Amino acid sequence: MTSVTLFPPKTSQTSADWLAYFEHNRQNLLTLPWNTPYFLTPEEKAAIAHSIQNFQLGEQSEGTNLMKATRRYVERSGDVEFLQAMKLFIGEEQRHARDLGNFMQCEGIPLRQKHWSDRLFRRFRRGVNLEIALRVLLTAEIIATIYYKALQEATHSSLLQKLCQQILQDEHQHLRFQIDRLERLQQQRKPWLKQASNFGNYLFLMLTILVVWLDHYRVFHRSGYCLMDIYRHCHHTSRYLWENT
Ligand SMILES: [Fe+2]
Ligand SMILES: [Fe+2]
Questions:
Q1: Ligand 2 mean position to 19 CA, how many Å?
Q2: Residue 2 is assigned to a structural domain of this protein
Q3: Alpha carbon distance 17, 32 (integer Å)
Q4: How far is the CA of 66 from the centre of ligand 2 (A)?
Q5: Is 5 inside a domain boundary?
């Protein structure tokens, strides 16, 4: 296992700054080597196919529930630029789904239409306020930062490695984007209540890791990550994010 450096640099925090960041990122994507002559070996494909199908499905959300919660928040706060930034954020997730889907097509891995874990995550976000929606999302994003690192190391495909590099760059900033807003939403909250909310989020993260591990064991195992590595990474990442925002 190679060391994992996943802590995003501190960035500007206004919605206008985030909007500028997403606009800039859209124009400065890594070039992906779509014409690479390398194809996955049967062993590589067997190890990642099930897993990449589920993550690709998770990435392709249209963000309907998240946008509803964001609109309700923006109506109260008047922060219109946040709504625009959120649209670009969802656009980045859809790009991840599109690129992963194209990679799968190149490798003859069928797209998955539904999976219980995806349905569960969507259900958690249905009808909730922006804070809950962001907390569920943050949980998925923290785990994604170690999952894509493992996927990047699981095969010799330069295309998949570069694609994972781009997704990891994006996801690190997504973490910061979400934590910025969560901090703002909690500004008026009493410190003990804020800590209790964050602790609840932490427990949800720890539980989700176990589910993800069971479903994506082969990718993690192939890259040399054990369950404790994932727990350690997620623990440090969530602690760092809450303490350095
Ligand atoms: Fe993503
Ligand atoms: Fe993300």
A1: 15
A2: no
A3: 27
A4: 13
A5: no
